[in-house]
Amino acid sequence: MAHKNTVCVWYDKDALAAATFYAQTFPDSAVTAVHTAPGDYPDGREGDVLMVEFTVCGIPCVGLNGGPAITHSEAFSFQVVTEDQPETDRLWNAIVGNGGQERECGWCRDRWGVFWQISPRTLLEAVTSADKALAKRAFNAMMPMKKIDIAAIEAAIRPA
What we know:
Number of helices: 5
Structural class: alpha/beta
Radius of gyration: 18 Å
Strand content: 25-35%
């Protein structure tokens, strides 16, 4: 771990499976190291996978197999910016289709309970626009969506 700041994500026992899935799903992602426990601990035994170093879209992370005591919430999520509908669909479908769940406004939850925002650049630029009327139209179009439909966002922000 050479990084000064690393995102630590708590898993019950599947940090390696999760990190491997992320590495196969997201660009610029990889599993970089697997560390086993040097001794027994409350939710595992010596030799069990304890920590997994990985990157998600270039962001350094460590997965900690800490047991079932801590669960994930929407208070933490990975936000992945997509460039087009095929990329949005591919990432969304990978998460949801691998035991995940759809949520509102471009959010989904993976099978390990980690939350993701699959966020098209078009949407992010529109809802943060200095043009408040355009931002409101984009925001209102997004609110009923689960997976973001870029064509619907573009239609909402198109000049009348």
